[in-house]
Amino acid sequence: MQINNLYHNAVAHFSNQPIVTIATGATCAFAGDERSIREHLISDEAARHLRNAGHTVIHLFIDDNLDPLNLRQLRVAVNKDESLIERCKAWCGRPIAHLPDPWGCCESYAAHFEEQVLNRLHYVHCHPTLVRVSKLYERGLYAPAVRFVLENPQKIRDFLQERFPQYTPEKLFWPICPVCDYIDSTRVESVQNGEVQVVCSRCEKTSAQPLDSLTGKLNWKLDCAVRWSFLRIDAEAFSQPFMEPTAGSFPVAQALSQEFFGGHSIFPLNYGLVKMENKMGGKLLDALPPQMLRNIFVDQPVSDINVSRDLLVLTASRHKVLPEFTYLEFIKRILPIWLLTPQDLTWEQRELVKHGIAFGKEFLQTPVQPHLPQRQHIEETDVDVLGDLLTLLKSAVSLREEPIEAPAHSPLGDSEGELELQKQIEDQIAAMGSSKKMALRRFRAIVGQEHGLPVSKLLLLLPLEYLNLLLYLIELFLKCSTPALAEIH
C-alpha cells in the first residue's frame, strides 16, 4: 500500500458499499500523550474521504474498559502523585470500568479518561461515537462467543498452534472474580454442565457460576474477532506491529473470525508509529493549532513520524493559519501586534494567540510578548533620523485618524479601506528619499519588529494609542536633547 494511497484505497475497497463502519480501540486507563490520538485521526480521515465519496460512515471509538488497571498506568494517570498512587494502588488488577473516579468528577475511573480522550479528539475535529465494551458484555452481545470459547478451548488453542505457532495466549477468557472483583488473577478451572469453576489467586476463593451469567472478557484477539462480527465493523486502524504476520493482532483476529465467528472480514487502516521525546508530551496540544496537529498525523498515514522540534518548526513554516501568513510568520509578525489589543480579538483569534505564545516558548525558545517602544533604541538613534521618523509617524497617525468606509478594521488590515490607507502610507515612506532606509531600520528596532511586517503594514496595524505613545516619547527625547530640533518638528 502506497503512503499517499491509504485513504484512496479505502474508498476503492468500499466503492459498492453505501454504509461503512470504522472502529478504533483503546483502553482508557490514562490519557497519555499526543501519540495515542494518531489511530483515531487515521480512522477519522478515512471516514472523511469515504463521506466525500458519498458513503454514510459510522466511526466508533471502542473503550476496552474491562481491562485491568496496572501500576504503570496508574502512575501516568495521576501524574505520579504519590498520595493518589498510595490511595488507588489496591485497585490495580480490577477492571477500570468498576473503579471509582479518583477525582470524583465522573461515574468511573474509565469514564474520567474517556472524557479526557474524547476532549482531545474533539479538539482536532474528530468526533467518534463512544462504545464501552463493558456495556456490550452486559447486554449479552458477546454471550454466544463466550460460551463457544469456554466449551471449546482446546479446539481454539489447536487452531492457533497450527496457524500461529509463535502465538500462545495466556488465557482465552479472563473471568472477573465474583468475590473480590479482580480480573488479573483469575482463571477458568473447568466448565461442566453449563457451570464454570473460577479460581482467584488474590482472594484464594473458588466459585461456581452458571456459564450464562459469568462475567469477564475474552482474550483481546478473540474479542476483536467477535465484535467485528456483531458490530459489523468494516475497517479498523492498526499500527504496523499489530500487522506482524506471525502473531500480530490483525492476522490472528482475522483468522479467528474466519474460522469460528462468522468470517466477517475487515479492511485494515495500517498506520505508522509516532516517536516523540517524553518531554514533548502534552505540549503539542497547547502549542499547535488543531488542523496543524491533525495534518502532522494524517498526511502521510503509513509513514513513521519522529515528532521533533525541527519537524514542528518546519511544519509551522508551511502551515497557513491566515490567508497571507503561515503559523511561523504569524508568531513572528502578527502575534506581537495582536497582543497589544487582545480585547479586540475574536475567540478564534485568541485561541490562535494562545497557541502561538506556547509555540514560541516551547519550540522557538523565544517568548512572544508585546513590544513597547524601547527607550534604549530611541536614545541610540541619531536625532536627524528621529526627526524624519517623527514626521513619518505624524503623517501615518493623521491618515489613520481619518474615517474609513466599513469594514473599518480587521486584525490583518486587509479590508478595502485599509489597503488603500496602506498605499497612502507607502507613498509617505517613498517621499522620504535617501533618509528612508535608516529611519525605517530604527523604527523596526524601537518597536521590536526587526524582521516583521513591512513598515507600512506595521504603521497600519499598530494601535493608534501605541503610535501616539511613540510620538510622545520621541518628541520628549528631542525636546530634552535638542530643543531647537524639537521646535522644527
In words, what does this structure look like?
It holds the Pfam family tRNA-synt_1f. One of its GO terms (cellular component) is cytoplasm. This protein is 48% helix and 13% strand. It is α/β, with parallel strands linked by helices and 489 residues long. The chain folds into 3 domains: 3-274, Rossmann fold (3-Layer(aba) Sandwich); 277-363, no CATH class; 375-488, no CATH class. Helix 17 (383-401) crosses helix 19 (436-447) and helix 17 packs antiparallel against helix 21 (464-481). The protein is elongated, with a radius of gyration of 32 Å. The mean pLDDT is 92.
Labels describing this entry:
Rossmann fold; 3 domains; 5-stranded parallel β-sheet; alpha/beta; 13% strand; 489 residues; 3-stranded antiparallel β-sheet; single chain
Strand and helix map with partners:
Blueprint: H1 6-13, E1 19-26, H2 38-52, E2 56-63, H3 71-77, H4 82-88, H5 109-123, E3 129-132, H6 133-138, H7 143-151, H8 153-163, E4 173-175, E5 186-192, E6 195-200, E7 205-210, E8 216-218, H9 220-230, E9 235-239, H10 249-260, E10 267-271, E11 274-276, H11 283-287, H12 290-298, E12 305-307, H13 309-316, E13 320-322, E14 325-326, H14 327-338, H15 347-363, H16 375-379, H17 383-401, H18 416-430, H19 436-447, H20 455-461, H21 464-481, H22 483-488
Parallel strand pairs: 1-2, 1-9, 2-3, 9-10, 11-12
Antiparallel strand pairs: 4-8, 5-6, 6-7, 13-14
Helix pairs in contact: 1-2, 9-10, 14-15, 17-18, 17-19, 17-21, 18-20
InterPro entries: Lys-tRNA-ligase, Rossmann-like_a/b/a_fold
Keywords: Aminoacyl-tRNA synthetase, Cytoplasm, Ligase
Organism: Abditibacterium utsteinense
